[in-house]
Structures are given as structure tokens and as C-alpha cells.
Design brief:
alpha/beta; five-stranded parallel β-sheet; 10 strands; 36% helix; elongated
């Protein structure tokens, strides 16, 4: 029987659904690398959450035809070898947009209302009535990367009365975004925004792209929220900023 290996914690109810869809496949779920090694030689499909599958392992899987990453980013995978082998590679772009957009809205409200400081005070039993309470209404949010998550953040932010700016590779008007800029125009977004949301994917062109140049352009009161790929930010410059 043809074999599909699921290299992550995967509830049985979902495996049952897969079996109904493709009953000519054997579905094996594991989280241990030693267990993974047992099935490399004859698996045809690999479903993986943490997108990390070394080129050496790929060489031990001669029958592998399809990798399904349960992530949007796939930059940790051996992309050249996958391309050379003509293995199908798919991701799950879009399935995280609700939770990540809610996280972003929550983070902005958290900073505006000082909930993080209030929570620490609550734990320590401190009552501080001088704590400032701001709003995100009327503020400017700059979304760097208008993919599915960025679009959902724009939609929710506009409902909260925020002005929405966005950056995308091919700038064109978008619903819920007041102004869309190209990547070469990011300065304007960093200068105007009260909240900067980084959603950039990791590519050769975005490696450490957000650096001291952009951090120095931000308002002193602005917040930087990174939910994109970590290496798109120059970490040393972020620490200095």
C-alpha cells in the first residue's frame, strides 16, 4: 500500500478523514525522528508542521512525490533539492489569518490600553490609577506584506476606525487599505504609522530588510509588531532601536 507519513502530532479524527478521502494510502503519524527514518524509503507523501526537512533526509526518500507543509513559510526546507527532484511542495497559506489577525488587534489594544502593565500590577497587588489609557481608534497601522493575514488585519483594523497603510510587492488598490505602497516606498509607511506590522516572507530580497534605516524613521511612540519571518528583521538593529 502507498504510504503517507505525517510528521507531527495529528489527532486520529483527522487521520480518519484522510483515510476516507484516500483509502488506497496508509497513513502513519509520528513525532520521533527515529520513527521517521523507518519510513523514509517508501513514503510518497510527507505532511510536516515545522518546515524543517534536511536535504540529507530527502536523499533517503527516493519515492517522495509531495510535501505538504502545515505552515505558510517553507524557507527551512531544502528548496533547491525539492525543485531538482520535481517534488510537489504545498503550504497552508491563509488558514492562519483569523488567529493571527486577532493576535495583532489584541497586541495593538494591549499597548494602547497598557494591559501588559496593568496585568503585572495586578499580580503584584499594585493599584495605579495614573496608568494611561489610549485608543487604537484614529491611529495609523502600517502592514508590511498584504497577503491573506495582512488583508484580514486590514479588514479588522478598519472596523476599529484605524487608518490602514500597506506595502506589497505589486502595489494596487485593496479593500480596507487606505493607501498601498510598493516595497521601495516603505519609508512613508514607517514614518506615518503608529503601529507597524511586519508580515514579510523570507526571500533573498527580504533578508534583514527591516533595519536601522526603517527603525529610525518610526515615531518615538510607535510600536513594532513582528509576525512575519524573523530573519526579515535585522535583530542587532532592532535591539539598538
Amino acid at each position: 500500500m502507498r504510504k503517507c507519513l505525517i510528521y507531527l502530532e495529528f489527532p486520529e479524527k483527522y487521520i480518519s478523514q484522510l483515510k476516507k478521502i484516500a483509502n488506497h494510502y496508509e497513513f502513519i503519524s509520528c513525532t520521533d525522528k527515529s520513527e521517521l527514518m523507518k519510513h523514509l524509503s517508501d513514503m510518497e507523501i510527507l505532511i510536516i508542521f515545522v518546515a524543517k526537512f534536511e536535504a540529507e533526509l530527502l536523499g533517503l526518500a527516493p519515492n517522495l512525490k509531495w510535501i505538504q507543509a502545515i505552515t505558510a513559510g517553507v524557507d527551512n526546507l531544502p528548496l533547491k533539492e525539492i525543485k531538482d527532484r520535481r517534488i510537489i511542495l504545498t503550504n497552508t497559506r491563509g488558514i492562519h489569518k483569523i488567529q493571527m489577525a486577532e493576535f495583532t488587534i489584541a497586541a495593538m489594544i494591549n499597548f494602547a490600553r497598557n494591559f501588559h502593565r496593568m496585568h503585572r500590577n495586578q499580580i503584584k497587588g499594585v493599584w495605579d490609577r495614573s496608568m494611561s489609557q489610549a485608543e487604537i481608534y484614529g491611529k495609523v497601522v502600517g502592514i508590511i506584506g498584504l497577503g491573506s493575514i495582512g488583508e484580514e488585519i486590514a479588514r479588522k483594523a478598519s472596523f476599529f476606525g484605524m487608518r490602514v497603510l500597506g506595502v506589497r510587492k505589486n502595489p494596487q488598490p485593496m479593500k480596507y487599505v487606505d493607501q498601498v505602497y510598493g516595497i521601495e516606498e516603505m519609508d512613508a509607511v514607517f514614518q506615518e504609522s503608529d503601529y507597524i506590522i511586519n508580515l514579510l516572507p523570507l526571500t533573498a530580497g527580504t533578508q534583514k530588510i527591516i533595519d536601522k534605516h526603517y527603525f529610525s524613521a518610526m515615531k518615538k511612540t510607535a510600536c513594532f509588531i513582528n509576525i512575519g519571518r524573523g530573519p526579515t528583521v535585522n535583530q542587532a538593529d532592532l535591539v539598538d532601536a
